[in-house]
Amino acid sequence: MQDSPLAVLLSRLDFAWITSMHILYPPLTIGLAMLLFFAEWRWLRSQDELWYRLTRFFEKLFIVNFAAGVATGITMEMAFGILYGPFSQAAGPFFGQVLGYETITAFMYEAGFIGLMIFGWGKISRKMHLFATFNVALSSSLSAMWIMDANSWMQTPAGVVFKDGIFQVTDWAAALLNPDVLLGFPHMLLAALELALCFVAAISAWFVLKQRHAALFQRSLTHAIAALVVVAPLQIYLGDGLGRVVADDQPAALAAMEGHYHTYNADGSVDTSWQVIGWPNAKGDDFAWSISIPHALSLIETHSWSGKVTGLDDIPAPNRPPVVVPFYAFRVMVAAGFALVPLAFWGLILMLRGRLSPGNAPAQRWFLRAVVAGGVLPYIGVWCGWWVREVCRQPFVVYGLMRTDQGVSHMSVVAALFWLVGYMAFELTVWGSVWYFLAKIVRQGPDLASPVVAEGNQPLGHLEPAPHDPAALPSYVRPI
Amino acid sequence: MDTLTQIQTLVTFAWWLALDLCVLLYVVLDGADLGAGIFSLFVREPHERGAIMSAMAGTWDANETWLIVAGGVLFGTFPFVYGATFSYLMLPLALALWGMITRAVALEFRHLAHQRWLRFTDLAFGLGSLTTTFFGGMAVGAVLQGYPLTTTPGQVPTYVGGALRFISPFSLWTGAAAVIAVLLAGLLFVRARFEKAEPIRRQAASWTNGVFYLALVAVGVTLIVSARLFPWAQLRWFGPHMWLWALVPLAVLAVVVRMRAAMRAERDLAAILWFNAGVALMAGAMLATMYPWLVPGTWTIYTGASPAVSLFTFTLAMGGFIPIMLMYNAYQIWVFRARISALAAYH
After folding, report:
1. pLDDT band at B129 (very low <50, low <70, confident <90, very high)
2. Which of A14, A138, A156, A372 holds its CA 20 to 30 A away from the CA of B126?
3. Dist CA B177 CA B261 (whole Å)
4. Residue A255 has what pLDDT?
């Protein structure tokens, strides 16, 4: 049990900071790897050079993002033990195993093929390269699966008993297929794809808007928008499903993110109203003011006119999560998700009318500007979604079973501050350089001049000179 | 804590071997990258420093990932050790991680940076490598010394001793020794990865001799200090099987002689392999000395093991995934095997 509330709060901030700064990168890695595979596959099938140029251009952006993801991600695995030692010990039998599987089956798998994907052009055959890209996409998705499984188990800890300070696994299948992961993983995976599509669409729209390589980027723009027409509504559907899992399994979390303070109104009737916005009073047991829509909450959560939704007043006071952060983060996430739907359909209508053809696209200035601006929406959505998820689970680290103050390491305030300040400096630097270099690559534009890579049958040189000729130089010096 | 069944005891032992393998692979593979990074601090020409980074560009990520895999195995199989030890090592790990982040960012972004920033990225790369190595070495020394645990009934013993306990003359020494050993690995790597006529390769070759003897001294000092400091080491080394243990330094010596011969004959790959064989031999001997302790005096591999270890998951990982990992790792290193010249560009 950690005594100082300030040290506990700082430990939470420490972890919140490193996770928030890490989740900026992996979704793009996951989603963009899928899109790169698609583009490269189209190139090999059609032999159309445009697909090749698009692949090579977006791969440059991918590399910058990937490097930042690795740099910030290495910390994550160590941070569980450093900042949350007692939690790691207690949850290790399940949680540690799952993270272990992530590193063995996904992380290493990805690292093995990413080197080939980035530096293998022209050294390995085209088909082998496509295979490497495919493996990067698959392994990064696998990685997301394990991570989401571990995190979902913290939300809905099934299949374990908490005995002698350890979570003992009684049912592996139930723990691995806990209620939250069944929708939590698809929701995150689709978020990654949606984010990558918006990223590609925004950059492509910027080029089209500037009339640079418009013919090239018109293609990536229209393909991304067409995919978004399917992905954006599907994501809302999955999000709604996940919301109902939360309502069933984590009533306190749902009450916090909806700002639902009372199960019943003062007159004894079921409180069915959904708060659009509001602000808690000084005591924190109700909203001081709010705008609400009657019956909307019951409709959303129970799909009935006046179904009962557990309010915070039915949760014992020490177990209530904070309200303001999840309440607003949830609203921002939902708004971001909903905003992408009309954007995608606007693009679809333009496409159907032929307004986004290579010749016409640059004229759609307002649409293109909207797509560029839309590039940030999924990032905001991912951040807010995670804040909802993690803050709503408080004051527990494993929902309902282990409290956060039982799980944190015994750090002094100074040590926790040292970590926070250090990581603020490092990760802001990483973030700044990522922005700087992404912008630089985009400004430079795609490389259309260098020849398309060959099949990769160049001699690679040799490791050791032949014994009879110690001074022999390799017959070919590789370009790296 | 529940006691382990007989099968679980065996599986735990096997996982411990797997953990050792991952750590050893990390030390051997990333050690060369880190050492080349430290060496780059002493390389004058910016394009040569860039070439050092290019030489590892295709493989550094996979090499570093062995550390993550080791962390994953530790967390999965020995969660009690993981949770307590990493709290104990908060400071050196944080500093080593910052070194790694700096290094990764400098390496990946250098080719995009403007000319006038190159001095900065190169310094960041070199200092990042140095920090990672030194604090990584300190962490190893601190682990060898062990740490106290809480004894609250009904709870897993954990570490509450504060953030500075890891600092000791011994851990400072292991940090320094790590820098020396890794520098030697880096020099061998540079020798093997560059065209024979390149000036940078000649610079590395001229350094190798001095660093080689320094490393030899460092190993000797570490051995003597360990024998004096640690009762668990004395018990093994000077116990009933003393003559068996005396064979280890002889074997190491034989390997070192072969390595020197390979270095002299400019058979660079052979030199690296002999060096790695020496590291593996010494690491194996050290682990055998420590057995059954994972953290001497604090955790044995059996008290630290998860009660959920099972033959099934172990077979899955060891029989399926780790051999595949080794295969594609080897393929990747094979693709990026040839010597390069300092003029080689990043892409």
Report:
1. very high
2. A14
3. 24
4. 87
Q: Which residues of A touch B85 (CB under 8 A)?
A: 81
The two tokens of residue A260 are 């639902």
Contact assignment for A77 to B336 by CB distance below 8 Å: no
Q: Taking CB atoms and an 8 Å cut-off, how many pairs form between chains A and B?
A: 279
Please give the share of chain B, as a percent, with pLDDT higher than 70: 96
CB < 8 Å from A in window 321-340 of B: 321-322, 325, 328-329, 331-332, 335-340
What total number of domains does chain B contain? Answer: 1
pLDDT confidence bin for B3, thresholds 50/70/90? low
Residue B344 lies in a domain: no
The residue among A3, A18, A64, A82 with the most chain B CBs within 10 A of its CB, best to mutate, is A82
Residue ranges of B 170-209 with Cβ closer than 8 A to chain A = 192, 195-197
Q: What is the mean pLDDT of each run of 10 residues along chain A (480 residues)?
A: 75 90 94 95 90 92 89 85 88 86 81 81 84 92 92 90 84 87 92 95 93 89 93 92 86 86 81 82 78 83 81 84 89 92 93 84 87 93 93 89 86 86 89 90 87 64 43 39
d(CA A41, nearest CA chain B) in Å: 22
Q: Confidence band (pLDDT; 50, 70, 90) for B342?
A: low
For B279-304, what is the mean pLDDT?
Answer: 90
Question: Taking CB atoms and an 8 Å limit, are B90 and A114 in contact across chains?
Answer: no
What is the per-residue pLDDT across B26-80, written as a single tens digit (0 to 9) for each?
A: 999 999 999 999 999 998 888 888 888 888 877 787 788 888 888 888 888 888 8
Q: Please give the C-alpha separations between residue A358 and each of A58, A201, A217, A346, A349, in angstroms, as whole numbers.
A: 20, 15, 9, 17, 16
Q: What pLDDT does B99 receive? A: 92
pLDDT of residue B215: 93
Strand partners, B293: B300
| Mean pLDDT confidence for B280-292 | 91
Q: What is the pLDDT of residue A265?
A: 82
Judge whether B346 lies within some domain.
no
How far, in Å, CA of A188 to CA of A68, rounded?
A: 20
CA nearest neighbour of A326 among A269, A372, A380, A386: A386
Q: Which one of A105, A107, A479 has the shortest CB-CB distance to B65?
A: A107
Q: Which DSSP string do the residues of A442-469 spell out, in sequence order?
A: HHH----SSPPP--S-S----SS--TT-
DSSP letters spanning A26-59? HHHHHHHHHHHHHHHHHHHHH--HHHHHHHHHHH
Q: By C-alpha distance, which of A433, A142, A295 is closest to B113?
A: A433
Shortest distance, CA A99 to any CA of chain B (angstroms): 6
CA distances from A133 to A35, A110, A185, B73, B323 (A): 10, 10, 22, 27, 21
Is A6 near chain B, with CB under 8 Å?
Answer: no
Q: Where does A106-180 have alpha helices with state H?
A: 108-119, 126-155, 172-176
Residue B208 placed within a domain:
yes
- Collapsing DSSP to helix, strand or coil, B164 comes out as coil
Interface test with A, best of B8, B97, B316 (most A CBs within 10 A): B97
Distance from CA of B282 to the nearest CA of A (A): 26
For A103-129, b where at least 16 C-beta lie within 10 A, e where not — what string? bbbbbbbbbbbbbbbbbbbbbbebeeb
Residue B61 structural domain = 6-335
Q: B160 in contact with A at a CB cutoff of 8 Å?
A: yes
Looking at residue A212, the DSSP 8-state letter turns out to be S
User: What is the value of ipTM here, to two decimals?
Assistant: 0.82
Dig out the tokens for B293 from the structure: 């302790």
> Does residue B345 fall inside a structural domain?
no
A153 has a chain B CB within 8 A of its CB: no
| Cα B298 to Cα B165: distance, rounded to the nearest angstrom | 14
Cα distance from A192 to chain B (closest Cα, Å)?
A: 22
Closest among A285, A290, A292, A333 to A312, alpha carbons compared: A285
